[in-house]
Amino acid sequence: MPDTLPHAPAARPDLSFETRMTQAGRAPLRRHGFVNPPVQRGSTVLHASCEAMDAVHQRSFEQVLTYGTAGGPTHHALEDAIAEVEGGTRCLIVGTGLAAIAVPLLAYLKAGDHCLIADSIYGPTRRLADGLIRGWGIEVEYYDPLVDEAGMEALLRSNTRVVMTESPGSHTFEVQDIPAIVRAAHRHGAKVLMDNTWGIHHFQPFQHGVDVSIQALTKYVGGHSDVLLGSVTVNTPEDWQTVRAAYVALGQFASPDDCWLALRGLRTLPVRLKQQAENGLEVARWLESRPEVARTLHPALPSHPQHGIWKRDFTGTCSLFGVVLQPRYSRQDMCALVDGLHHFGIGASWGGYESLALPTAVTRTATPLALGGQAFRLHIGLEDPADLIADLARGLDALPR
């Protein structure tokens, strides 16, 4: 096996997303042998000589074989594929979505720095920021996710190093004006990090100026609720040096078996995502018609407050959205509805083939969140939407009048 592993051939920009996902991370015109790259596991890498080993280690930021934690052929294939999804140049694969958030935050921040984080951020990111990051002498400040360019400008300081974004928020579904935030942050020399798990490929982060894009590959890329993975994608050599150095220092690693499962999931991502998005919109539109529902929090619906921003910046949607019940219903009523659903599992995560329901749990510190009623989140899977609607109808009909 050679020490150097070439990148997979770059897909042509004129090809569709569907075609690119069948080819990314593998030789697209393979005429012999197995279609899929095999799983390759390993820790120790042997070299022909001390000189050869030294030469490889001098290129450790490239896709070379140095030691198992630095990745192998299966990791590199997935790295190339996710970079293709996000429109970046280089990608790191780590063990979880939360690890994908932690690596770049720790890469760019040090004691005495100031970090701005959207108040709608994923709960475990808040836990990381309020615990370890604050504990290392880094100042964390939460900001209104709906901040405009002037508002972001007012929040930035001389020691602000990172602005963390998530759009839409995975429980509140507030859509951030990423280009405006980027313009203000870059004027002050701050890096913009984005959790782009909801956007997947519908939001192309680097076209909008984002420096580091983060995804939980556990979700739609894995697609089957049986793998934990995260990705960190960048678009410049400078950002690659920074995040790669932190990745190596922290000993981050992802199982090659999980990488292989993610590669397999990637091949069906376009068809799954398209069908689930259609199913999700059908269910969301139906919920808007129900008298028990006060609001349906889906950015692709014209009723969403930031629908205009979504329409400007996104090319499509996924199947995760929120539902707010009328104020007359209690949490007990909402939980009884969720508990009684037959086709929705009650559980965290999303992006798999199965539908899920989860009560909304949101912490806010910068801006109050007035949803107006008890809320829950729905992830719509590949079931027939007519069956899901009938299930939800039974639950809503059973609410006290």
TrEMBL record:
Reaction(s) the record says it catalyses: L,L-cystathionine + H2O = L-homocysteine + pyruvate + NH4(+); an S-substituted L-cysteine + H2O = a thiol + pyruvate + NH4(+)
PROSITE patterns noted in UniProt: CYS_MET_METAB_PP
Keywords (A to Z) from UniProt: Lyase, Pyridoxal phosphate
Cofactor annotation: pyridoxal 5'-phosphate
Signal peptide: none
Gene Ontology MF term list: cysteine-S-conjugate beta-lyase activity; pyridoxal phosphate binding
Stored SUPFAM superfamilies: PLP-dependent transferases
EC number: 4.4.1.13
Similarity section: Belongs to the trans-sulfuration enzymes family.
Protein's name in the database: Cystathionine beta-lyase
Annotated organism of origin: Roseomonas gilardii
